[in-house]
Amino acid sequence: MKFTDGQWLTREGVQTSYAKQIVDTRLEDGRLTLFAAVRSVEHRGHTLNSPLLTVECWSPAEGVIGVRTTHHAGGSGPAAGFPLNLQEGHGAAATRDGSVVELSAGPLVLRVDTALPWRLEFLSGSRLLTAAGSRGTGFATVADGTHHMLAQLSLGVGDLVYGLGERFTPFTRNGQSVDIWQADGGTASEQAYKNIPFHLTNRGYGVFVNHPGRVSYEVGSEAVGQVQFSVEDQSLEYFVVQGEDPRQVLDRYTALTGRPALPPAWSFGLWLSTSFTTGYDEETVGRFVRGMADRDIPLSVFHFDCFWMRPYQWCDFTWDPQVFPDPGGMLRRLKERGLRVCVWINPYIGQKSPLFAEAAREGHLLRRPDGGVWQWDMWQAGMALVDFTSPAARRWYAGKLRALVDQGVDCFKTDFGERVPTDVLWYDGSDPEQMHNHYTQLYNRTVFEVLEQVRGEGDAVLFARSATTGGQQFPVHWGGDCESTFEAMAESLRGGLSLGLSGFGFWSHDIGGFEGTPTPALFKRWVQFGLLSSHSRLHGSGSYRVPWHYDEEAVSVTRDFTRLKHRLMPYLFQAARQARERGVPVMRAMLLEFPEDPACHTLDRQYMLGDDLLVAPVLSADGTVEYYVPAGEWTHVLTGERIGGPGWRRDRFGFDSLPLLARPGSVVPFGARDEHPVYDWADGVTLRVHAPADGMETVTEIPAPDGSTAATFHTRCSNGTVTVRTDDAPGEWHVLLAGAAASGDRARKAGPGIRAGASAGTRELVLRLPE
């Protein structure tokens, strides 16, 4: 929200007040409280008839400092905020040296000179990260009488801003106005399904605004050298999060707001959907499943979209008996084929649903202030919302889902949760404006907990569309309704990278696009992208996404890249463990891996998949792709070609390939099987070593599908030899010097590189690099 009219004026009807002078300071128990007048106080008379801001500063964790500014404290109170994980006893200290007071939280220091005009400085060591200056702390009232707390934090030369949720607008937020407000706006607008009041910078810090309602951002827009954020409230709380690099910032942010759960290994395989409004029944489902098997395309999950239930009755959690007369038998037959089953749900109850009367009678539906049930006719006729602030409503809803899980359903696509009204009365008295964004957290938590309770921890997964802060704890999230165009494919990727920089570890998208029908070329390119994402689903709106509906080459591309993903499972699941343990996403903006390379700071058409694989999806019909290669000698995974960086490349690829490059010196484990994502990844594993440099030492952990570590390998390059050692490999294992010519008695040419094998019990392999 903009309050000013250029540099000098305020907008019509707006009155602003900013902290100008500190009139008192308190230091106690690692906390710092500043009392700031909004005018210069030169004598006692100036203390009258003027606001005084209370600015509380403290540290909830190492490298994190919180600031809460309050104007009037006696109203409804400050925003409830999000649940946070606080570190006890991490050593925050408040000190005074003359007029200077400091609050230190490990490497992050807040410095204030109380003798000077208002200025909060956040430093990492001696380096200034950002500051709240003359307009950095204050409030504004506008013509409609509303009161807004605001803050401004400075941007330095070259500072770039990312995140704020899954946003499809330009990748860097600089110059944008962003409202943190849930909306069902597709992927082609400034609206977003997943709004997160956290922004990350390329300068060693991020900022989290702890307010569950609307947060209005002006990112280098209203004031081009500032990030401004404001809330309609009497109090504003934010946290500055420091890190030596962007990955550490995400680590600290997700430690504060919640780490993602580890999705089950089977969820990383290919999902196939009925699509949305297409005609389908059990015969259609069976035909699709058999068609995939007949074409040797491994399938892991079959998804039933909305019309598994009767029209006008979403959600009643009951299979349409005319379309699926034997749902239990159908699910059993799918399970016999080794498939998992996902069904679509949302948090709404249509009036025609038998559950509507039941839920209304029991008080489980959201109500208007006059006590009547809130309803409208969008989406489902007369639909109402389940009030998840009520424990009884949550138990009631969970019971309906538990019956489906008992029937054989493995997971749920939790659609919607964005269009939440504000003219309502919540069961627990929650502020309607704040609950608009927070509703999705209660919804997804309710569903996820059902799956964890019934299936056990580690076997729960959602396919969720909406999210707020903390939603990363309940993976997986997908990108919503995109069109079937290359432009939409690019905007989807931007959204996914933005979400990853907002603390979410797992993300997917509709392969082929949702609205419309993709051309064969688009479908094949999107298949490559989709199967090199953390999760992969074929889904559309009015047309099917089975590959043989496009052409025979689409079948080959789908088969080959599905099987490639299965072989990459030991690598991908290790990246998933990193997301669970440190909050770093599986699909990473180049900035996360190469923060010292300025060329990587704005890249939004390529990404790192885990630590070591660079992926540049082909976003053109003729196969042309422009991509940036960071410094070093990279190896094309599919061809073995060596590619030197740093520099830009413009190449053209057939549908059997795309830029998929392994990082110099990386050791990427490939599993021995490709027919399913779940198997013993350590047994028969091949360690692909890429362009090792003398002195290189690497530790490679091979996970097990249950999330434990199955084997650990140590790779060292010295004096022209590569030595790989292990003490716990459970079976055969192999080493491939990828891209190298054959050389040495124990090595043999096997594809693009030199291969050596070890039988069970072998502890060490030594390969000589070719001259």
From TrEMBL:
Pfam families: Gal_mutarotas_2, Glyco_hydro_31_2nd, Glyco_hydro_31_3rd. It comes from the Bacteria. InterPro entries: Alpha-glycosidase_related, Gal_mutarotase_sf_dom, GH, Glyco_hydro_31_C, Glyco_hydro_31_N_dom, Glyco_hydro_31_TIM, Glyco_hydro_b. PANTHER family: GLYCOSIDASE FAMILY 31, MYOGENESIS-REGULATING GLYCOSIDASE. The keyword rRNA-binding does not apply. Residues 583-668 form the Glycosyl hydrolase family 31 C-terminal domain. The keyword Hydrolase applies. This is Alpha-xylosidase. Residues 260-574 form the Glycoside hydrolase family 31 TIM barrel domain. Belongs to the glycosyl hydrolase 31 family. Keywords: Glycosidase, Hydrolase. It comes from Streptomyces desertarenae. It is an enzyme of class 3 (hydrolase). The gene is yicI. Its EC number is 3.2.1.177. Residues 60-217 form the Glycoside hydrolase family 31 N-terminal domain. GO terms for molecular function: alpha-D-xyloside xylohydrolase.
